[in-house]
Amino acid sequence: MVVVADRESPLPQDASGVKLGSSFGSATTPSAGSTGLSVAGFGMPEHELLKIMVAQSPVAMSVVDAAGVGVLWNPAAERIFGWSAGEVIGHHLPTVDPSFAAEFGDIQSSTLRGNQVVAQETRRRHRDGHLIDVAFSTVPLRDHGGRAVAVLGIIWEITERKRIEAELIRQAHHDDLTGLLNRVGLTAKLCAQMEPAAGRSGTYGAIAVLNLGRLKEVNDAFGLPAGDEMLCAFAKRIRRAVRPSDLVARLDADTFAVALPQVGAVHVDAAVARLFARIGTSCVVGGRTVSVELRGGVAVCLESEAPADALRRAAVALHQAKRQPHVRFHVLQAGDDRSFGGRVELAEQLSGAADRGELRLHFQPIVSAASGLVTGAEALVRWEHPDRGLLSPDRFISLAEETGSISMIGRWVLEEACRTLAGWAAGDPASAQLSVSVNLSIAQLQEPELGAHIAEVIANCGLAPERLHLEITESMLSVDLEAAAGVLEHLTDLGVVLAIDDFGTGNSSLIALRRFPFQILKVDQSFVGGIGVRPDDEVIVAATIALAHGLGLTVVAEGVETEAQRQFLVRHGCDELQGFLLGRPAPASQWLGLEWT
Ligand code: C2E
Ligand code: CA
Ligand code: CA
User: What was the pLDDT predicted at 28?
Assistant: First the structure.
């Protein structure tokens, strides 16, 4: 019902407040029938009502003729763009608003040619120069002969919505505390930079993952704000140690990542050494100088490798660096890269293994040395890999620890082990006193919600807490004694029983015994294997049993394979035995019919 103006005509100011070309002032409004429009007026002529509507609409409306000259420009359009109706109507729009010139031709011609609504979001300039975001739809307006003669634009300002959207994206891509990118943001930026459109081939230099040791200690000793201060200080140092165009991210609590875009494989070592030197190893927190242990893992990116994979390999390298006491960083060499190709794939598959129901638990009996009756079972995880068959934990537990999947696997093992034990008790009251031993990895000990999860699982299964034994390998505890002590005390408070596993293989065995609330000691199978073979091992086993008993601990000997070993252990007062001689690990279904305590 909008009629295209005659450009030569004067532009009357209508009583309705809407400014329009001369035809709008004409008394000869086409009938509703000819426009396809039905209007039930308020006792006013139809065209009057429509003019009021356009004038009072909160949505901006414009009509521009085929030559690009303004015909209608309502007050909402004046408010959004700042141009008055007088400045637009009768004037060539791209000349009035040069910020629109580039898009104008396309929008105008595609609207006039097509029959559809053209909808777009774009950024424009307000008359006073500030940028505004607008969404608009345009449709062609046709004369009675069906010829497209003008373009009707319906426009909303969306500056605020765009600002909020941009802020949400920024927040999702950044770490609140340090303002650095987070993992999502880093991966997104790396992906964008690797696009051929960004002028890069498939590779991205190298990625370094840096771990800041002692954060937990600082948090515990001086409080969380001090830990935050330390993180922010190091975030700034890392940022200053690289070029402004390099990407720096905080991946999780104490781990940062730096993307070194241009560095070539042969220069990586030198580049990372420089980075470490610039970052330094101490900082001032709350007025005190704290020295930190900075460790790094570096992956030289492979051809066309997804950034997430490179990050994962850098995390693997970090893990390797951490295993060697005096190594500050480890760079994955080309040879490592090849062998890690398979590991990366395996890690990927492992992350979904529990959800896909591919994990299995086998149970190995632990028997009373005196009576030979079963007192409990150790739950040992296996992975039923779709192509590789049943994989033993040695093949995937360290990978799971390196890549973080261990949390998910650990939770599954804990739940499945407790469910199985509860099931046995329900099926056979004689098994009601059996215990189940579950192995915990160091990563699980660092999970804040571990205690709550354990409490929930034993409650759900209706298990007495002392029937759940948690095995912790002694060497894991040397990493962070104080932090581990807190976690283990919390677990003991729940009433579960802690066992020190592989006793004698680490370098802090005795400290661990004194410091942590263990109730069970498991003599490592390497010593048990020496019984009858190496006299030294016999001395160690006998002394360990005596030591443990002196401290009030129950002793379990692992890896008992021969009758001679069993007799030796019984003779020296060992409490319980575990090993192939007594029973191999087997699925829960094969446990039926065993004789319990
Ligand atoms: P571990 O905790 O020391 O478990 C005992 C390992 O010794 C098991 O190997 C068991 O099958 C094996 N074994 C038992 N008796 C004998 C014997 O008489 N002779 C010999 N040669 N070996 C014996 P498995 O099942 O391959 O597990 C290896 C390791 O993987 C475990 O050592 C444990 O550290 C880890 N692991 C297993 N399940 C889990 C789990 O659910 N979570 C975590 N974090 N680690 C697990
Ligand atoms: Ca164990
Ligand atoms: Ca063991």
Answer: 38
